[in-house]
Amino acid sequence: MLASDAHGGFGGIAQYNRDVLEALDSFTGVREVVVVPRAADTRTVNAPAKVRYDLAGTAGQLSFARRAIAQAFVADRYDLIYCAHINLLPLAKLVACLQRAPLLLAIYGIDGWWRPSRPMVGRLTSRADLVISISQTTLERFLAWSTIDPAATAVLPNAIKVERFGLAQKNRELLQRLGIEGRKIIMTLGRMWSDERAKGFDEVIELMPRLREVEPDIAYIAAGDGDDRPRLEAKAKMLGVADQVVFAGRIPEAQKQDYYRLADAYVMPSRWEGFGFVVLEALACGTPVVASSADGTQEAVGRGEMGAVVDPADQAALLSAIVAALRKPKQIPAGLGYFSFDNFSSRLHGTLQRIIDI
Question: Residue 267's beta-bridge partner residues?
C-alpha cells in the first residue's frame, strides 16, 4: 500500500486506510501487507499483526519515492499494489509494472471529482485494474471525466464501529469548560481550510441570527482548525453571534465521542464531502444529523433514512431541518448496521476477489 497516511495519521482518509488494513489483516489469505506512507507520526503507529510499515520514506517526497521503488525489487512478488491516493498513482503504477501485479486505486472525495491538474495522473486512472470509491457520489463524478471502464469500479463506503461510541449523558465538565451548560447545542467538525471552505461552517454561522430567534439558548460548536479559522471567528463577531459560536479547535480522537454527545444535532451542510465519516460517528452517538444533498454526506444518512438531507444553499430549508433535529430524541438508527466493520470487511473481500485470489 502506497498511502498519504494511515496509522499515525489524522483525518478521514487515514481512518479509511486503517480500516482497510485491519480488514486485510483478518483475511486468512493475506500473509503480509507492507505500507509505505508519505507521512506518519511514528509515535502512534500501532499496526495489526500482518501489517508492516516502511517508515523510511517519511522524510520527504524523494525518500518516499525511493522507498516505494525499493519495494518493487523485493524478493517476494506482491499480489496487489494498493494506491491509497490518486496523487500517488504514477509511482504506484511504476511499482505495479515492475512487480507485474494488479493495481488498485482508492478515491474519496474531491481528489476524484475533477480531472487532475497533472495530465499523467488523469490518464493513468484508466490503467488501474480496479478503482474503489468511498461513495456513489464520488464514483459518478469520477466516471464523468475518467475513461476507465465502469465495470472496473466498485463502491466501498466507510465503516463505523458502533461499539466505540454509543449513547451516554453529556459530559458536564466539558460543558462547563466550553461555557455552554444548559443550552441547545449544534455542532460541525471538520478542517477549516481557506482553499476549501466547504464543510458548512459558513452556512451555519450565517444562519445563527435566525436560529437564535427560534432557539434563544442556541450554541454552535465549530470544531476543527486551520488557516481559515480567523476568518470564521471574524464572521461570527460581525454577525453578532460570537458569544454563541464556540471554536473548539482540533479535537483528539479519544474525546470525539464526548463532543458528539454534547450536540443535540450534528449539522453538516457541506458541498465537497466525499462521504462524511463524521456523520457516521455522530449517528453512532445517537445524535440527530442534518446532512447535505450536494455531496456524499447524503449517503452516510441513507439518503434521508437516518437523518435529514438539505440543500446547503437553501437557508430556509436548513433552518427548518436544524430546528426539527433539535426536537428529535437521541437514538442510534438501526440502519447504521449497514456500515458495520464486519460488512465493510465482507465488501472489501468480495471486491478484491475480482482481481486477486484472496
Answer: 290
Q: Which residue in this structure is represented by grid cell 500473509?
A: 31
Do residues 131 and 148 lie in contact, with contact meaning Cβ atoms separated by under 8 Å? yes
Q: Give the mean pLDDT of the chain.
A: 95
Q: Where are the domains of the chain?
A: 2-159+340-352, 162-336
CA–CA distance, 171 with 221 (Å, rounded to integer): 14
Of 274, 300, 296, residue with least CA distance to 287: 300
Whether residue 84 contacts residue 12, with contact meaning beta carbons closer than 8 Å, is answered with no
Residue 348 CA, chain-centre distance (Å), reads 17
**Per-10-residue mean pLDDT, the chain, length 358:** 91 93 96 94 82 92 94 88 98 96 96 95 97 98 98 97 95 97 97 92 98 97 97 98 97 93 98 94 98 97 97 98 98 96 98 94
- The answer to whether residues 85 and 13 touch, using CB atoms and an 8 Å cutoff, is yes
In DSSP terms, 278 is beta-bridged to none
Half-sphere exposure (CA, 13 Å, Cβ side) for 52? 8
**CA 25 to CA 81: how far, in whole Å?**
16
Amino acid at 6: A
Equal CATH topology for 2-159+340-352 and 162-336:
yes
Q: What DSSP state is assigned to residue 75?
A: S
Report the CATH fold assignment for 162-336.
Rossmann fold (3.40.50)
Whole-number CA gyration radius for the chain: 21
Which H/E stretch holds residue 251? none
Cell of 225: 482548525
> Any idea how long the chain is?
358
Reported in sequence order, the residue ranges of 143-281 that DSSP labels E, i.e. its strands, are 153-155, 184-189, 218-223, 245-249, 265-267
Domain 2-159+340-352 class in CATH: alpha beta
Of the CA atoms within 13 Å of residue 271, those in its CB half-sphere come to 10
Instruction: Decide if 74 contacts 95 (C-beta within 8 A).
Output: no
pLDDT in tens, 167-226: 999 999 999 999 999 999 999 999 999 988 989 999 999 999 999 999 999 999 999 999
